[in-house]
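# step 3/5: fold
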Amino acid sequence: MRYSGLQVLAQGLMGNRGWTPAWRDPKPKLAYDILIIGGGGHGLATAFYLAKEHGLTNVAVLEKGYLGGGNVGRNTTIVRANYGLPGNSEFYSHSLKLWEGLEGELNYNVMHSQRGIINLFHSDGQRDAYARRGNAMINQGDDAILLDTEGCRRILPYLDYAQTRFPIYGGLYHPRGGTARHDAVAWGFARGADLRGVDVIQNCEVTGIDVENGRVTGVQTTRGAIRARKVGMVAAGRTSQVAALAGMRVPIESHVLQAFVTEGLKPCIDHVVTYGMGHFYISQSDKGGLVFGGDLDFYASYAARGNLPMAEHVMEAGLTLMPMIGKARMLRSWGGIMDMSPDGSPIIDRTHIDGLYLNCGWCYGGFKAVPGSGYSFAHLLATDRPHEPAARYRLDRFETGAGLMDEEATGAQHNLH
């Protein structure tokens, strides 16, 4: 079924009895050409682009839970391309361009809203850093506008500009940035892959990766053994555990990142706003809730929940920046398990095991990378050659030290990113 306004009207007149399932619920076959471990946004996007761009449809996505139940359904939904380092800049620029045509490509409303992102700065040094980043963005072909204090006041009149400790000097405005509906992105890619013949298999946990004579031959799952010529690992915060099934150690630590949402409010925040002197970022959802987050919990964990001290820290930063939100009641909080790499940049590469591929290390910015990651990983799986925008995301940079991309200049250490 192709979705359209006419279809919505027709189904409404018929009592919505004619909608067909968005995707099939297939049983696993005994063998596939390519298996993708992980049915999150990156894994589903990979399957979609394998079918669409490369004509490879004998593909299965194996998800141990349900679609949208992992990080792709528990994040703050921000989409942007405001990176400054070569390697990251090209990749996220490519990903943003894919976002801009995604709803038409998928025939699915992912509620992509280019409402703009403003990164605030609070010192002369931060202004200089954001000026350099803005120039890098413009040189890459993306958009960036450096705002002074009055420029911010015109767009964000509700902020506390007279903070005694951290006055607002201005901000870097990225108009094409914004948000999208997180779980709708997963559903849209799942539907698009399924329509092209890919098997999306839920409740199918991978319990082993079969390797013979240095080559992958398939996987063991809770629904039986499945053979494959190629296997792609796209398991986010569970990457270390999945790679261990093949006897691999990867340069990844798993940390929890909390997010929060308030009760629904009347529209009051039109953009995504980040606070330069306290790790805090906020936007308002289409349902009216204020969606915000902050720092990692700073200890390794697989628990999809957060700790109270970090929750308090995030609230303090938010109230310092915009006291007006102080009376809003928090509705819920949750935690996503982040796959943190030492330099804060991702990995898309082949492994030392023939036929086994790795896509991980997205840290706390994986959502905005979903279409770009899927496109680039699909290219690698299909051709055995790196896709140009992701060419610097090599695994061996952590072994040699060459090509590290420390975007935040916080040092090559997992828990600093």
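# step 4/5: annotate
The two ends are 43 Å apart (CA to CA).
# step 5/5: archive (pending)
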